[in-house]
């Protein structure tokens, strides 16, 4: 069984895919979310969102926001985010066109864009 995770910023949908579990920092501490988690709405702290996608853990730094969990759906609304894969902080171009991407891993690039330097 999986969860559908959707992470949104004011400018775009950052993540919209099925995941196995997440670990989210809230204003009252960290929570782990597995399938069939009890419904909850919470404020999100400035911290790391950990995402388990199959056997791989991804991390995303969230700059505060809100989360809603229920019916195996997680929606996280955040002010901003930074992404990492395998512990390495990666840069994300704000002008990146993701319309052709079929998997969330394709969003990540270890090559910094000239805009971010």
Automatic annotation (TrEMBL):
Q: Which compartment or compartments is the protein found in?
A: Membrane
Write the record's keywords in alphabetical order, separated by commas.
ATP synthesis, CF(1), Hydrogen ion transport, Hydrolase, Ion transport, Membrane, Plastid, Thylakoid, Transport
According to the UniProt entry, where is the signal peptide?
none
Topology with regard to the membrane?
Answer: Peripheral membrane protein
GO MF annotation terms: hydrolase activity; proton-transporting ATP synthase activity, rotational mechanism
**What GO terms fall under cellular component here?**
proton-transporting ATP synthase complex
Superkingdom of the organism of origin: Eukaryota
Question: Which EC number(s) does UniProt give?
Answer: 3.6.3.14
What range(s) does the ATP synthase F1 complex delta/epsilon subunit N-terminal domain occupy? Answer: 3-79
| Catalytic EC class | hydrolase
For this protein, the record's PANTHER family field holds: ATP SYNTHASE DELTA/EPSILON CHAIN, ATP SYNTHASE EPSILON CHAIN, CHLOROPLASTIC
Q: Which family does it belong to?
A: Belongs to the ATPase epsilon chain family.
Which HAMAP family does the protein's record reference? ATP_synth_epsil_bac (MF_00530)
Q: What is this protein called?
A: Putative H(+)-transporting two-sector ATPase
Q: Could you read off the lineage of the organism from its UniProt record?
A: Eukaryota, Viridiplantae, Streptophyta, Embryophyta, Tracheophyta
């Amino acid at each position: 069984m999986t969860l559908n995770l959707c992470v949104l910023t004011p400018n775009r949908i950052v993540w919209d895919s099925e995941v196995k579990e997440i670990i989210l920092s809230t204003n009252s501490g960290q929570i782990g979310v597995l399938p069939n988690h009890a419904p909850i709405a919470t404020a999100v702290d400035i911290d790391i969102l950990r995402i388990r996608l199959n056997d791989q853990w991804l991390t995303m730094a969230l700059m505060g926001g809100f989360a809603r969990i229920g019916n195996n759906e997680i929606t996280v609304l955040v002010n901003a985010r930074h992404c990492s894969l395998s512990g390495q902080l990666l840069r994300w171009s704000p002008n990146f066109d993701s319309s052709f991407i079929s998997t969330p891993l394709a969003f990540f690039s270890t090559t910094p864009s000239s805009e971010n330097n």
